[in-house]
Design brief:
Blueprint lengths: L9 E7 L4 E6 L5 E4 L7 H4 L10 H36 L1
Parallel strand pairs: 1-3
Antiparallel strand pairs: 1-2
The site of zinc ion (ZN) has 7 residues, from loops.
Length: 93
């Protein structure tokens, strides 16, 4: 191996936000690698649904679509009322 051209490949400890940690080898600078997800807690491996909420994005999405659903419901109610009125008018004739 030629000296001075290869990155430093050393042992690092990976610690996840879930508390799980393991050792691996890497050219990463430093001894500690902090991650937010690992194979111990990622939904793909656990099979459980989990929201990774960054700065209230899930909440914002739900708020946005709650308004849209409300508008749809109101439109449907108005349409039904108009239909009933037309039916009543037709029955009068
Ligand atoms: Zn984890």
């Amino acid at each position: 191996m030629k000296a001075g051209i290869h990155p430093d490949y050393h042992e690092v400890t990976v610690s996840c936000a879930c508390g799980h940690s393991f050792k691996t080898r890497s050219t990463f600078k430093g001894e500690q690698l902090r991650v937010e997800l690992c194979s111990n807690c990622h939904p793909y491996f656990t099979g459980k649904m989990k929201f990774i909420d960054t700065a209230g994005r899930v909440e914002r999405f739900q708020r946005k679509y709650a308004q849209a659903a409300e508008a749809t419901a109101q439109a449907a109610a108005a349409k039904a009322a108009a239909k009933a009125a037309a039916k009543a008018a037709a029955a009068k004739r």
